[in-house]
TrEMBL record:
Organism whose genome encodes this protein: Gemmata massiliana
Protein name: Response regulatory domain-containing protein
Highest taxon in the source lineage: Bacteria
Coiled-coil stretches noted in the UniProt entry, renumbered to this chain: none
GO annotations of cellular component type: cytosol; protein-DNA complex
Alphabetical list of Pfam families matching this protein: Response_reg
């Protein structure tokens, strides 16, 4: 049985450090994902509202609007499709993780994020999103 290839994920990388953003974008592009980069919260919101991504990799320590506020606004402003939001940040204390959860962030990773773990995570999201019975549960 031939399995059709899974479509690429649309990933929005929100990171104010250009070299970090480019490195992550290159890694994800090589892994077969469609990647956009935003360097601040307001640009991230504009990009996500114009074309909602499947996944947002979100730094917390952004200039101006922090990542927690970006996540809250994404959750409230996007109608329909909600992305998987992953914090990728240097902030790793329990309180930081709690604030991420409170803001609607699905997963909190600390920098430097392991590239293998990141690509594995996105492969799992890709598999879940392309599954024909996702969200159906056991009801028929």
């Amino acid at each position: 049985m031939n399995e059709s290839p899974r479509p690429p994920l649309s990933v929005l990388v929100v990171e104010d450090l250009l070299d970090v953003a480019e490195s992550v974008a290159d890694l994800l592009t090589i892994s077969g994902h469609a990647v956009r980069v935003a360097s601040c919260g307001s640009d991230a919101l504009l990009a996500a509202l114009a074309d909602p991504p499947d996944v947002v990799l979100l730094d917390i320590g952004l200039p101006g609007m922090d990542g927690w506020e970006v996540a809250r606004r994404l959750r409230s402003q996007l109608n329909g499709k909600q992305p998987v939001v992953v914090a990728v940040t240097g902030l790793g204390a329990d309180d930081d993780r709690r604030r991420s959860a409170d803001a609607g962030i699905d997963l909190h990773l600390t920098k430097p994020a392991d590239p293998v773990a990141l690509t594995t995570l996105l492969a799992r999201v890709r598999s879940l999103l392309s599954s024909p019975d996702r969200g159906l549960g056991s009801c028929k």
